[in-house]
Each structure stands twice: as C-alpha cells, then as structure tokens.
Amino acid sequence: MPTGQAALASSVGYAVSSSYSPELNPDELVNADLKRSLPHTHRARNQTELASETRRFFHRRQRQPHIVRGYFGGRHVRYVIDEWTP
Q1: Stretch 6-26: mean pLDDT, rounded?
Q2: Fewer CB within 10 A of the terminal residue: the chain, N end or C end?
Q3: Residue 4: left (phi > 0), alpha (psi -120 to 50), or beta?
Q4: What pLDDT, in 10s, does the model give residues 52-64?
Q5: Domain layout of the chain by residue ranges
Q6: CA Rg, the chain, in Å?
Q7: In sequence order, what are the residues at sequence separation of 6 or more whose Cβ sits closer than 8 angstroms to the Cβ of residue 85?
C-alpha cells in the first residue's frame, strides 16, 4: 500500500497551476463584472451603501443565469466545468 504523498496523489486528484492566475479564476471574472457595474450606478459614499449596491448587483445576477454561465464559458476557465461535471 502506498504511503505519504503517493497515497494522497492516488486518492485525490489535483492540478498544478501557477501561484496566481486571475485570468484562470471565474471568481475574478465576477469581481471584474461587479467593479464594472458599480461606478455606472450610484457611487457609494460609505460602507453601508457599498454593501447595499453589492447585494443589489448579486440579486440581479441571480435572475440572469445566462450571464453567470458566461463566467465559465471562456476557454481559459472551461477547466472548472470539465473537472466538476460528474
């Protein structure tokens, strides 16, 4: 029976990527979308207004699944769907 890292590698799949690759992370696409949308709406004057605008953005996105799917449609983030699909 394998021990140590060999046992871990045989039981858990892992992928090696660079230490920081924001272009490969769908979360970064969401953050960029949020940042693009906030300045065009009401500019928050304090933390409470910013939190409110952020919640409003995410509530809007919940009703726009085609946009959310788009975060995962790019060639560079497709690996997320490919690895997640059972």
Answers
A1: 64
A2: C
A3: left
A4: 989 999 999 999 9
A5: 20-84
A6: 18
A7: none
**Gap between the Cα atoms of 30 and 38, Å rounded:** 12
pLDDT tens profile 17-46: 556 676 777 888 899 899 888 876 667 889
CA–CA separation, 24 vs 74, rounded Å?
9
Residue 61 to residue 68: CA distance in whole angstroms = 7
Residues 6 or more apart whose Cβ sits within 8 Å of residue 10: 2
- Please report, in angstroms and rounded to a whole number, the separation of the first and last CA atoms in the chain: 27
Percent of the chain with pLDDT over 70: 60
Residue 29 and residue 71 in contact, taking contact as beta carbons nearer than 8 Å = yes
In single-letter form, the type of residue at position 30 comes to: V
d(Cα 19, Cα 4) in Å, to the nearest integer? 23
Give me 36's structure tokens.
Answer: 């693009």
- Return the percentage of the chain with pLDDT > 90, whole number: 22
